[in-house]
Backbone:
């Protein structure tokens, strides 16, 4: 049987050709990545000024530093906890410009000049914030790891209701929301307690809300 010379293709030849094609295809990606590297391997730093718990401080940070890491690693405020690091557990909740946020989901450089309140800024062991005292009074903590985020969130939740900010369960968004446990449960749903101390946490929040109502009356 005559053999062809122009189109003879062996299995080994096909495999070799495929490898060569794949290698060629990756070259532009590698070439494109090179200019993004930092000359000399140094990490650029940017100045960031925050007012944390009433005290302004300026630091030079890697622009990729999250607010959570800035507070814990640079400001040495370890009361704010790193839980899931994905914004799902609420352990890292702090109050920024009066609003609660997950500090693991935001960069420190995004808050230049902002006022940040952590659990350390709410009160002290000898002068507890009313919410901190209520958590103690109602045993609203067990292992305590989520407690700083729970308390920061609870303080902001009562402010949200007081400021008339509606939630997903507010029936009439045009009217000022009233305090209810349904509102509290919905607004606190982003703060997870793996120990299951929710009942005591709700009691603590209701206690403070009652005191707040008396003060407003």
Residues:
């Amino acid at each position: 049987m005559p053999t062809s010379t122009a189109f003879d293709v062996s299995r080994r030849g096909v495999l070799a050709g495929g490898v060569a094609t794949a290698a060629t295809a990756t070259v532009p990606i590698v070439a494109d990545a090179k200019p993004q590297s930092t000359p000399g391997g140094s990490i650029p730093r940017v100045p960031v000024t925050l007012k944390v718990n009433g005290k302004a401080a300026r630091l030079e940070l890697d622009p990729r530093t999250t607010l959570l890491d800035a507070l814990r690693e640079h400001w040495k405020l370890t009361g704010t906890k790193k839980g899931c690091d994905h914004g799902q557990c609420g352990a890292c909740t702090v109050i920024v410009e009066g609003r609660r946020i997950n500090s693991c989901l935001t960069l420190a450089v995004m808050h230049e000049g902002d006022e940040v309140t952590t659990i350390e800024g709410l009160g002290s062991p000898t002068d507890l914030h009313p919410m901190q005292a209520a958590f103690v009074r109602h045993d609203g903590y067990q292992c305590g790891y989520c407690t700083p985020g729970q308390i920061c969130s609870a303080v902001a939740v009562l402010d949200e209701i007081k400021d008339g900010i509606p939630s997903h369960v507010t029936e009439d968004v045009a009217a000022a929301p009233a305090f209810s446990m349904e509102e509290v449960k919905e607004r606190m749903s982003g703060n997870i307690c793996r120990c299951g101390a929710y009942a005591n946490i709700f009691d603590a929040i209701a206690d403070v809300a009652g005191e707040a109502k008396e003060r407003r009356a």
Summary: Residues 50 and 111 are 7 Å apart (CA to CA). DSSP finds seven helices and five strands in the chain. Confidence is low (pLDDT under 50) at residues 1-7, 18-35, 212-217. The helical segments are 11-33, 67-74, 119-122, 130-137, 147-162, 181-187, 198-216.
